[in-house]
Design a protein that fits this description.
The protein is of the alpha/beta class. It has five helices and 14 strands. The structure holds zinc ion.
């Protein structure tokens, strides 16, 4: 009985789930990033909530989104059930055209297009494989299907790579304050390739995400001495 009571107390005293966070300073006040899992994260700023690629369980317990961004059609990025649980009624969902049929009232952005929603400026950036695919002559992510994004809040430019290799469009980015950079094989790139691409556009801060099974030490080592600050969060807690 006593141990059962003890367990009950523990269950009450511990938060249901704690997710790692980072907070950035912007001209409009703090911007907080919360790593949910793999490619799924939440941003909070100025009383607004943004969910990016919400997937999996637990969204009922998180703040609901005023804005959502979807990068691609694959299940680790587009999960209609999680999206429904994360969305405030009528909150805009920005998505590539390929993902639109599985989203209620989407706001479609194609690569190269941009829009402003409330305090958020959203630019759709290409994301695609240069060479990796399920078989010869095919790629996992075709050019034009998915969107990476630059999300600007209070002058702070956050780059969300999506699933991509180190494409020229990424390497040519300018004035990025923080970059969420994917890696993992066979779908995107190695940590060494990711570090090489990051060096080319030189964000102030690089945050590996979507890195399941990758060696983050290799990513950090690749950027040693570059002046890019690497921030590691546990996305698989
Ligand atoms: Zn993915």
């Amino acid at each position: 009985m006593r141990s059962a009571l003890c367990l009950l107390f523990l269950a009450w005293a511990l938060p249901a789930q704690t997710h790692p966070t980072l907070t950035f300073d912007t001209q409009a006040g703090p911007l907080k990033l919360t790593a949910i899992r793999h490619a799924s994260f939440m941003l909070e700023a100025g009383g607004q909530v943004v969910h990016v690629d919400p997937t999996g369980a637990g969204y009922e317990a998180l703040p609901k989104a005023d804005l959502l961004l979807i990068t691609d059609t694959h299940g680790d990025h587009l999960d209609p059930k999680a999206l429904g649980a994360a969305r405030k009624p009528a909150a805009p969902v920005v998505a590539p055209e390929a993902a639109a049929p599985r989203i209620e009232s989407p706001k479609v952005l194609h690569n190269g297009e941009s829009t402003t929603i409330g305090p958020w400026r959203i630019e759709a950036i290409p994301m695609y494989n240069l060479k990796r695919g399920p078989k010869e002559g095919a790629v996992y992510h075709e050019k034009g299907r998915g969107n990476g994004y630059i999300l600007t809040y209070g002058g702070f430019r956050l780059y969300i790579a999506g699933d991509t290799e180190g494409i020229p469009e990424m390497r040519a980015l300018k004035n990025i304050d923080a970059a969420l950079v994917c890696m993992n094989l066979p779908y995107t790139m190695t940590p060494e390739e990711a570090a090489d691409a990051v060096k080319a556009f030189h964000p102030k801060v690089a945050i590996p995400y979507h890195y399941r099974g990758s060696d983050l030490n290799a990513f950090s080592a690749g950027l040693a001495g570059s002046g890019v600050t690497v921030k590691l969060l546990d996305w698989y807690h």
